[in-house]
Design brief:
By secondary structure, this protein is of the alpha+beta class. It is built from 20 helices and 15 strands. The strands form three sheets. Strands 2, 4, 5, 8, 9 and 10 form a six-stranded mixed sheet that branches. A five-stranded mixed sheet has the order 12-11-15-14-13. A four-stranded antiparallel sheet has the order 1-3-7-6, with no helix packed on it.
Length: 603
């Protein structure tokens, strides 16, 4: 029955992906709203004054409201007015009506309104699996043949060692395709797997309940963990058994064309061991070791193997601190040239902080904690593949109860850093044109800005869950506003998740979606989104604006604004699932409070 419902939902996703009737001046969360949450819609107008919320047939008015005063979008100069209908709490389907000619498609108000998105964005990882076929039973119309078995991978000259000279054949199957291309990268896998494992640690009940109809769904493990293991086991194969160092990536020499995975048959290589890849690997394996401990019966020995791999990688990184990945320099020394994604990073100090912290938390060995400077400056960077220091802070607060005295000593400062990061995003939300935490600065609109919004949401939710400052409630509201942003309340009016919404990307830069012959793209994948520099970066024809929050193009040539990537999907999974968990808690608490008051009145 579960598989039938999952396939049915895939069909529905396919239908909604082709509905493009969203009015151009209305910006809303296209999936809907929680009954007790803030509900806002942005309208690009300086003339309209009132709005209505009606039944789907527009015959019965449920609510009439006045648009808020005009706000100028500081990036485009456009006039925007917000409609607030938070008092409409009755579950159902509704339409937002500005006038007889201007109204939305129906949207929902309901509890668990984002549960399909949580499940669908996690299912997006299944569609990225390498080295395995995706049968119709699990993939629906996006079924495909297996590609890239990766059992005959060459050691690139840059990766050669005494035990594995250049040209040595190794086996490194599995893992996820990193993005719109077919290569596999340790650095990007690091933050991706770390984010998914953190969801299991922060919100275990709901994370374990997600059902995605994958081949492993009938086993005794949560689907989220099963999916994560597909990549984690591949990562383990990327460690050189002779010395503990970790190859930076498994890749073709150059990108494949827009073909299906089984048609992409170029030689594959493992390329140079790098200190950043090795430290990211260390952090993930140390975290995985403690997450996997409760599943020892189902996964005998895996938790211990992960910890041993992490400790060996840590030792290699300590002995090779200058082994940074510089692809241009590599290509000057070795052939063939490697021109796929570099994930180069000139500073490994943040990776070292994350790796040491995860090892410390898992082992309770203060030596790891003493090996780093936890607070190298007063900054608290938003996590990204290139800057993972704050992931160490998140790990410390979520594991606060089990820290040794040396770690507990720093907890107040860790919490202060996290709250300062959350305040940076939540302060000013009520002045922002679209009423979202995302987009208050032009610097938000970078390559992968959608992930920027989702990672801001995670920062806000970590602060909400683990700190107790005066802005706690604002953190939750701001995190939810960023999901509104991702699902359509933004300057371009797109829900950036394929298949989820009424105006979604139909042409992502994603090889299977381009080459599979299916009109709808693979669902559940987060487009990179608006990127102020996209026109210069991909030179794809068709961009219509230079405003930082409007530079987006739904075209497969637009890899700078419309590619997908695993490190963008992971924070979407976290944000959506965590909000579902917190909404359920609030609903339960609200019902308990009402029941208590009712009983008190009866007395």
């Amino acid at each position: 029955m579960t598989r039938f419902l999952s396939l049915l939902s895939l069909s529905l996703v396919s239908i909604t992906a082709h509905s493009q009737s969203q009015p151009s001046i209305i910006r809303l969360n296209q999936l809907g709203y929680y009954p007790n949450a803030v509900k806002q819609i942005a309208v690009l107008t300086d003339s309209a004054e009132t709005f209505k919320i009606t039944t789907p047939d527009r015959k019965r008015v449920i609510f009439t409201g006045k648009l808020k005063d005009v706000r100028k979008d500081s990036l485009s100069g456009k006039s925007v007015r917000l409609a607030d209908f938070s008092s409409v709490a009755q579950p159902g389907k509704y339409v937002f009506v500005l006038d007889k000619e201007t109204y939305t498609e129906p949207f929902a108000i309901k509890t668990n309104v984002y549960r399909p998105l949580a499940t669908g964005s996690l299912k997006g990882f299944y569609y990225q699996r390498a080295s395995t076929p995706l049968p119709a039973e699990f993939a629906g119309e996006w079924a495909r043949a297996a590609g890239h078995p990766d059992t005959q991978v060459q050691v690139h000259p840059s990766a050669a060692s005494d035990g594995r000279p250049k040209g040595t054949i190794i086996s490194s199957p599995g893992g996820w395709y990193d993005a719109g291309d077919y290569n596999k990268y340790i650095v990007n896998s690091g933050i991706t797997v770390g984010t998914l494992l953190s969801l299991l640690e922060d919100f275990p009940t709901i994370a374990k309940a997600l059902k995605t109809n994958i081949p492993e769904s009938d086993n005794a493990l949560p689907d989220l963990l099963d999916e994560t293991l597909w990549n984690l086991r591949w990562m383990l194969t990327m460690q050189d058994p002779s010395d503990g160092g970790v190859y930076h990536k498994l890749t073709n020499a150059k990108f494949d064309g827009m073909v299906m995975p089984d048609k992409a048959t170029a030689t594959r290589y493992v390329v140079q061991k790098s200190v950043t890849a090795t430290l990211d690997f260390t952090a993930v394996m140390a975290q995985a070791s403690r997450v996997l401990k409760p599943y020892e019966r189902q996964l005998p020995g895996l938790a211990d193997s992960c910890l041993q791999a992490a400790q060996r990688a840590w030792q290699w990184a300590g002995a090779n601190p200058k082994a940074l990945y510089d692809q241009d320099a590599l290509n000057r020394r070795y052939k063939p040239d490697i021109v796929t994604g570099a994930y180069g990073d000139k500073d490994a100090s943040d990776e070292q902080i994350w790796a040491a912290t995860e090892l410390y938390i898992t082992t309770k060995d203060d030596t790891y904690y003493k090996a780093i400077k936890l607070f190298p400056d007063e900054k608290t960077p938003l996590p990204s593949w290139a800057q993972v220091r704050t992931l160490a802070y998140y790990a410390l607060v979520r594991n606060a109860a089990s820290l040794t005295p040396i770690g507990k000593r720093d907890l107040p400062q860790v919490k202060r850093y996290i709250m300062e990061l959350a305040d940076r995003f939540s302060t000013g939300i009520d002045q922002q044109a679209y009423g979202t935490a995302m987009g208050q600065r032009a610097s938000d609109f970078i390559w992968g800005s959608s992930a920027e919004a989702a990672n801001q949401g995670i920062a806000l939710l970590v602060a909400y869950k683990y700190t107790s400052g005066p802005n706690k409630k604002q953190y939750l509201r701001s995190a939810l506003s960023n999901l509104d942003y991702l699902l359509g309340r933004n300057a371009v009016g797109y829900s950036f998740v394929t298949g989820f919404g009424t105006q979604t990307p139909l042409h992502p830069h994603h090889r299977p979606s381009v080459a599979d012959g299916v009109e709808a793209p693979v669902p559940g994948l987060l487009s990179g989104g608006t990127n102020a520099q996209a026109t210069q970066q991909d030179k794809c024809a068709g961009y219509t604006s230079t405003a930082p929050d409007e530079v987006y193009l739904d075209a497969d040539c637009s890899y700078a604004s419309n590619e997908i990537a695993i490190n963008w999907n992971a924070p979407l999974v976290y944000l959506t699932t965590a909000l579902e968990a917190l909404q359920a808690d609030q609903t339960t608490n609200s019902r308990t409070t009402k029941t208590t008051k009712s009983r008190s009145r009866r007395r």
